[in-house]
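Ticket #389: bound-state structure for iron/sulfur cluster.
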Amino acid sequence: MDLENLLEFDLDGLTAYCEQRGEKRFRAVQLFRWIHQKGARDFDQMSDLAKSLRDKLREVAAVRDLPVISEQASSDGTIKWLFDVGGGDAIESVFIPEDDRGTLCVSSQAGCAVGCRFCSTGHQGFSRNLTTSEIIAQLWFAEHHLRQRLKLPPGQRAITNVVMMGMGEPLQNYAALVPALRVMLSDHAYGLSRRRVTVSTSGMVPMMDRLRDDCPVALAVSLHAPNDLLRDDLVPLNKKYPISELMAACNRYLEKAPRDFVTFEYCMLEGVNDTVAHAQQLVALVRNRVPCKFNLIPFNPFPQSGLRCSPRPAVQAFANVLQEAGIVTTIRKTRGDDIDAACGQLAGEVQDRTSVKQRILVRAPITISPVGSSAGGCEPPHLTKDLPT
Ligand code: SF4
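RESOLUTION: The complex was predicted; output attached.
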């Protein structure tokens, strides 16, 4: 019999699981705390559970995390882990330490179907959705591994923020994502506030509306173009949910969001989306329409992308236009540059989904869109992001 992986459950799910076995809710709470707050996987460690329950659990359940394929530690403290999720698939998670916080960038899918031009993961194609346990196992491992490694005193957390900006489009894996978010937010588990958990989307408009109602955490939207013509090319999902619909969804989301702004991610691509005219078009798109901040992200080149990072003066000139219009704009520091390049590259070395690669390679060469058409946004090479506070 396959053992049930208890990392799969949020607290309600674990309560139902325990109740089916004749146990009361408070037992589920105890179990949940042992697993997530203390990092226990051995039921014998769980000393306040009745021995009869521990014996029962050992027969039917387990706390199963993900095998680590590799770890890379950067001189700036960034750590990237490559996890084996079976079937030849691998996913990445990245820990990004800063003075006042520790952020974990978490993957939601093995590969990604959105196929953004500038994204190494998108170039690999889509393999499958991760389960809730595979999403939460990234946090479980990082939190408890880092507590030991950093010799943190009891009660101090290693991970203070989570960003769903790793591999995959989180809102295309909604059913597994929401229970994982609930585990992150639970006071009996990681206890993160809604402001410290960010879901980043390439613009899945209907799912943004659902997330607003089901579990409104902070929202980041990948907006890498100021018009539909260009965004259709950079973020193919835009053909389905164009910029006007995306902006309307952002405003609906903000009605319940824990922050009063959306973070727009904008990957700076030389000669593609980085001119002053593009910046002016962005201003016209969002000013007095969508409360927002911008993160400008230096593109992290990878083989076959055919794209280059904008020169620093172009990035600064772009930022100036936004800032002078009163829009809070940051230029993202890249992190972990010495351990590898763009998000998805480690995993891409494990598996190259050639059919998708072929599909991407046959796309027309990228064109510089005329400034002046409509407007636009998606998820960037996530893993080198710096992050909403
Ligand atoms: S940027 Fe995000 S949504 Fe786009 S292909 Fe990469 S992982 Fe998918």
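RESOLUTION NOTES: The CA atoms of residues 8 and 133 lie 4 Å apart.
TICKET STATUS: resolved
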